[in-house]
């Protein structure tokens, strides 16, 4: 069957005609309903990170089943689904060691023949059934598209080992910062959000943040120390893509605290960290990248049960033909997710 998909180049996009075969025995043909524009696609579009061009972008995807291969179980035509498009090979050292989020083949998969990338900006996708997660038929496809970013944040929250009553500081109130806020509240934490945008702080409050710090008006480290009686935070999650915030984040931690460097930094700049501050306080500094299969499953369960509703994080819904406009609009700092309806 014939279909259209979009590929990204620096500051431009192109629509490509493709042909899909019938599903093989373990494959599923999915009609894409919605695809959110993520930071990855924005950075590829702006040329801030290097992938081979043209790049078949789009990985925060929902859709419904059109057809299944003969060995596919538990999926039927018209089922609503979430797709995990950053594929896992299941064979490399990291996949076999239980760290499939570190799969060395993840970005090498070519969903559309001849084009690297996850390929979610497309009318249809042919995909292995292991990457398809069934969702409730009455759940909005725009909400289902948040499965992947929510899964990323679940992975981060799990690495932070948040416990009941912990003081958690979220640096940055973009989409990922706010999803972290929602999840940290579900874990029973007192959540403080640091942000320079008044508008984003207002949204953070709606997402359940207990304390808001306007970094234009208050020094965040002093504020956090005051809030915790001089102890410092149990957990800090840095979601701001600015290297300098890493130094501030460490200073906000209390003894035995955990810092999650969630965002990647472009450009990557060195920061100053005192080895003794880590040694004597026994703080843990670690990163978090990509969800595991179990993280993705938990994300679909949270959305399916309505325990998490990310609708407040949708800034705009556009058509597939408006993708270039959507990419430009998604770059505006005040905007959250722009959703492409296929």
UniProtKB/TrEMBL annotation:
Protein name in the entry: Sorbitol dehydrogenase
Domain Alcohol dehydrogenase-like N-terminal: 25-136
Keyword Zinc on entry: yes
Top-level lineage group: Bacteria
Family designation: Belongs to the zinc-containing alcohol dehydrogenase family.
Pfam families attached to this UniProt entry: ADH_N (PF08240), ADH_zinc_N (PF00107)
The keyword Kinase appears for this protein: no
InterPro entries: ADH-like_C (IPR013149), ADH-like_N (IPR013154), ADH_Zn_CS (IPR002328), GroES-like_sf (IPR011032), NAD(P)-bd_dom_sf (IPR036291), Zn_alcohol_dh (IPR050129)
């Amino acid at each position: 069957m014939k279909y259209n998909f979009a590929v990204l180049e620096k500051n431009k996009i192109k629509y490509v005609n493709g042909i899909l075969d019938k599903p093989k025995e373990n494959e599923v043909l999915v009609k894409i309903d919605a695809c959110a524009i993520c930071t990855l696609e924005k950075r590829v579009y702006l040329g801030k990170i290097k992938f081979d061009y043209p790049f078949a972008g789009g990985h925060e995807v929902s859709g419904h089943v059109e057809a299944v291969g003969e060995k596919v179980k538990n999926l039927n035509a018209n089922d609503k689904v979430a797709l995990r498009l950053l594929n896992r090979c299941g064979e490399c050292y990291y996949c076999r060691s239980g760290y499939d989020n570190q799969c060395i083949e993840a970005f090498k998969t070519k969903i559309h023949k001849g084009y690297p990338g996850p390929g979610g900006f497309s009318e249809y996708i042919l995909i292995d059934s292991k990457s398809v997660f069934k969702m409730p038929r009455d759940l909005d496809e725009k909400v289902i598209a948040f499965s992947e970013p929510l899964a990323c944040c679940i992975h981060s929250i799990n690495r932070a080992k948040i416990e009941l009553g912990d003081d958690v500081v979220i640096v940055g109130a973009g989409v990922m910062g706010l999803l972290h806020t929602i999840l940290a509240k579900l874990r029973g934490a007192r959540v403080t959000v640091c942000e320079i945008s008044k508008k984003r702080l207002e949204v953070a409050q709606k997402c359940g943040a207990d304390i808001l710090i306007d970094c234009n008006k208050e020094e965040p480290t002093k504020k956090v120390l005051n809030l915790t009686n001089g102890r410092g935070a149990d957990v800090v999650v840095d979601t701001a893509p600015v290297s300098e915030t890493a130094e501030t984040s460490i200073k906000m931690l209390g003894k035995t605290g955990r810092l999650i460097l969630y965002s990647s930094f472009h450009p990557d700049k060195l920061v100053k960290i005192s080895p003794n501050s880590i040694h004597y306080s026994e703080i843990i500094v670690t990163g978090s990248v990509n969800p595991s299969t179990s993280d993705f499953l938990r994300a679909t369960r949270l959305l399916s049960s309505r325990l998490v509703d990310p609708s407040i994080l949708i800034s705009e819904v556009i058509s597939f033909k408006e993708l270039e406009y959507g990419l430009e609009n998604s770059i505006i700092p005040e905007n959250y997710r722009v959703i492409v309806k296929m």
